[in-house]
Design goal:
This protein is 72% helix and 6% strand. The protein is mainly α. Helix 1 crosses helix 4, helix 2 crosses helix 7 and helix 4 crosses helix 7. The two termini are 16 Å apart.
């Protein structure tokens, strides 16, 4: 087995467990630092123009991927043409594992996602609607003042579903495919979409490239998330039926499969009228035959998200190790 694949597998597991144990720090998070840097680049480049937006995405996302590649290269010893000593090999594996663990922890947000969702759920269960409205903006961009208890519960379940892909599964997929550069690059693209990818007057043109890039890189993670939600949910048959029928009606190519699979798995109805700052959207209903979302469904969605995330870790690590074994066998067979 190639050592880089072993190091990635160990590091991904450690980083995942680190996120489960401590979640995101309230201050000094690497993603927040990236956001500040991307904001500074935006202030330099902004014009109401798609070309400038594409340059912004290339500088921010491309620079992050390059930084990840340089970091990964720095922890590897250059080949000397002589067999590596065991101590040298173990040191390199340890360094690559530590870097992968740190990058994985930095880009994952599953624990914070569940924590924020449960905070809102507890406030709604206690009939403290004001506290729930105060907390909702930390989870999604909807206008909390326009939502009642049931609508806030639905917003939370939809956000948990979508962010299971964005904050966990998608990163694991790209990490398995591209190592540390893949992990960091995915989080950079996803963060850019959250910053400039929405349809406001300022970002309708400038954010177009970031939004489309996020659609592309989010595609595999969203499909894996939907598939695992079908398998891990309490109603696999219902989840598959709703996902197959309703996923394509959602305006987002990646949120659609995930939210539809969660709707079917949990036996609830998602979609409908959504209120954002300054605009109202009327989205197709996902799982129209199911019951409306209840406050208790927030906890069920969080538990399903955690199961999906754990399965995604297992699938992506196994895939990376299997690929490493296959390529090692091919390399030996060509000698």
């Amino acid at each position: 087995m190639r050592t880089d694949h072993v190091a990635y597998a160990c590091g991904a597991v450690l980083g995942f467990l680190g996120d489960r144990a401590v979640g995101d720090p309230r201050r000094g998070h690497p993603v927040a630092a990236f956001g500040r840097a991307a904001g500074a680049v935006e202030r330099r480049l902004w014009r109401d123009d798609r070309g400038r937006g594409a340059l912004h995405a290339a500088v921010c996302a491309g620079g992050t991927v390059l930084a990840g590649a340089l970091l990964a290269r720095a922890v590897r010893r250059p080949a000397t043409g002589r067999p590596a000593r065991p101590a040298t090999t173990l040191g390199r594996i340890a360094a690559e594992t530590a870097l992968t663990a740190a990058a994985t922890w930095a880009v994952l947000g599953g624990t914070t996602l569940g924590r924020e969702a449960r905070t809102i759920g507890a406030a709604l269960a206690a009939a403290d609607v004001d506290a729930a409205r105060d907390a909702l903006p930390r989870l999604c961009g909807r206008d909390p003042q326009a939502l009642d208890t049931q609508q806030m519960a639905r917003a939370v379940v939809e956000s948990v579903a979508e962010n299971t892909s964005d904050a966990v599964v998608g990163a694991l997929v790209w990490g398995a495919a591209g190592g540390v550069p893949g992990l960091l690059g995915f989080r950079a693209v996803n963060t850019l979409d959250a910053m400039v990818g929405h349809r406001s007057p300022r970002y309708r043109r400038f954010g177009w490239a970031s939004a489309r890039l996020d659609d592309v890189v989010g595609w595999p993670g969203a499909r894996l998330t939907a598939a695992l939600a079908v398998l891990a949910g309490p109603d696999p048959r219902g989840a598959w039926a709703v996902a197959r029928r309703d996923a394509g009606s959602h305006p987002s190519p990646n949120a659609g499969p995930v939210e539809a699979a969660f709707a079917g798995a949990l036996g609830v109805r998602l979609g409908g009228t959504l209120a954002y700052a300054g605009r109202v959207e009327h989205r197709p209903v996902l799982g129209a035959e199911n019951r409306p979302v209840e406050v208790a469904d927030i906890e069920r969605a969080v538990r399903l998200s955690r199961r999906v995330s754990t399965l995604a870790l297992a699938v992506t690590v196994a895939g990376r190790l299997a690929y490493g074994a296959a390529t090692m066998g091919t390399h030996q067979g060509d000698r």
